[in-house]
Amino acid sequence: xxxxxxxxxxxxxxxxxxxxxxxxxxxxxxxxxxxxxxxxxxxxxxxxxxxxxxxxxxxxxxxxxxxxxxxxxxxxxxxxxxxxxxxxxxxxxxxxxxxxxxxxxxxxxxxxxxxxxxxxxxxxxxxxxxxxxxxxxxxxxxxxxxxxxxxxxxxxxxxxxxxxxxxxxxxxxxxxxxxxxxxxxxxxxxxxxxxxxxxxxxxxxxxxxxxxxxxxxx
Length: 218
Hints:
Elements: H1 5-14, E1 22-25, E2 44-47, E3 51-55, E4 76-83, H2 86-94, E5 100-103, E6 107-109, E7 114-115, H3 130-136, E8 140-143, E9 155-156, E10 171-173, E11 177-182, E12 185-191, H4 197-202, E13 215-216
Parallel strand pairs: 1-2, 1-5, 5-8, 6-9, 8-10, 12-13
Antiparallel strand pairs: 2-3, 3-4, 6-7, 10-11, 11-12
């Protein structure tokens, strides 16, 4: 059975969290994590546009135009959720109350540097709250495709795009594997089904550290 890569990434990231964690989900792929949280684990999802208590994506036809995430996509809000202004939202983000933030990335390197907001020469809407999120959250998790559309590596020895943050990334999850950023470099912790160590290394510019035991993402 074929596994949807985005579903695989979102499901694996959902397993990092524990009961009572408050977690921010960035725009794009990270928003899918809300659909794949472990059953029975109470995780509070925060959206930087001003609410806590994000639920799963609404059923088609039942969307509420007043309930959207930071990317403007329809979401649900769970019982007990709360709405507030941007000042309160960023007070939560900057105060260290977030157990984790999940973001996408254009590039990440072996030092844990992150570039996820600008490609020089191209029009961009701005960095949003990414700089606040990666500095304020206790753990920074990247949900990303392993390579760019042209096949170029996105996990590098050194980022060459403008940085969002320096040495803040803790975990990288792609359709090929789960990696941890450590002071020694990027450690390969788990592989996706059917992926070999040789394949993931061939698509990664940074030299991966391979432990004696590499687990499976499933």
